Amino acid sequence: MTQSIPATKLAPTEPAPTEPAQDEPAQDEPQYPLAPSAVDASVYTDQARYQGELDRILSHAWFPVFPSADVPKPRDYVVWNQLGQSVVIIRLDDGSVSAWHNVCQHRGALLVEGSGRCSNGRFTCPWHGFVYDLEGSVRQVPLRESFDPAQLAGLRAPAVRVVEWSGWIWLTLSDTLPDLLEYLDTIGEELAGYRLDRFDTRFRVSVTLTANWKIVVDAFNETWHVPFTHKSTLSGLVLWRDASLKISSPHSWMTLPIRGFTDKVSNSDHRQTHLCHYLAFPNTIFSCFPNHLQMWTAWPVAPDKTVLNAYQLVGPTPDGLSDAKWEQHNERDWKHFLDVLAEDSEVINNFAALARSKGFRRNIFNTAESRLTAFHDEVAKRLR
Ligand code: FES
Ligand SMILES: [Fe+2]
């Protein structure tokens, strides 16, 4: 659990709804919904299992990969490199976004690096000069007459599904996955209430952690490590004992009261009163306050190595605050987030020394770790 909280300054910017939010939990909804469980240590270490997770889980999920603002104008592009893939994401002249595998269809060279603007609308392969248009189709071939025409017919870098939603470009490597909002389901409905298209991505960081990606996901989906790991940073700020966990398979989420804020705000929408924390299965987390949030994605790079890309998204300046003050709050929140992240990282990175330990036999989850139970059940189900 990582978050920073200017508790008294996070007044909602929207008027209080007069009707209860439809997603408000029933009174008798259990705080910790699932029974205790356990997973074998090999879940985090086995190489074959890791490959299976890449193929059958991470290749069949939607991810937010870049803020839309990273490609503001037609012909702006960025390259996404994760999960052993390289994908060009580019804004077309009609304002839509296209994505295609960054692989030359002649002999597999990398076509594009970094980010920038493709002013002339053409990408030229650095090896033998095949020329691609903005949508990844081959437009020119040197020595064309020397190729088999059938091999060149309709040749293009394979397309990748992308969609823009809530100020972000979302990507999936799957051709068969349902559309984004159907995939996100409850999590999408929850996030829609924040109107994230009004938010700016003000800060970002990338850290490499020496642990399996599921260790990283586990670490951010329960709260009761707060009084130990985050004794001086978080434990006075969130009422971690009162977290209310919700399973919305394959995703999960929770609401968490904020000390000195939740009980003072009169609003029936939990998004305006609580810290709401969402796991968009399998590896993206949104940790949301009414006016700002942090979002991060855990990208596996090896069975024992994970890159965590984290962002702070900031909403419009709340009523009663100057822009300068709001900026100060956001800078302070981000610094606080980095402090909390450093505390989590220290624990997570110590797994490097223990992953092969004969003493690491299984992980046991209590009911307060119901979201971890649900996550591992979902992972196991997809590997069967
Ligand atoms: S590999 Fe790209 S033109 Fe040859
Ligand atoms: Fe934490």
TrEMBL record:
The keyword Oxidoreductase applies. Its cofactor is Fe cation. Residues 62-171 form the Rieske domain. It comes from the Bacteria. Keywords: 2Fe-2S, Iron, Iron-sulfur, Metal-binding, Oxidoreductase. Residues 1-13 have a biased composition (Low complexity). Residues 1-33 are annotated as: Disordered. Pfam families: Rieske (PF00355), Ring_hydroxyl_A (PF00848). InterPro entries: Rieske_2Fe-2S, Rieske_2Fe-2S_sf, Ring_hydroxy_dOase_asu_C_dom, Rng_hydr_dOase-A. This is (2Fe-2S)-binding protein.
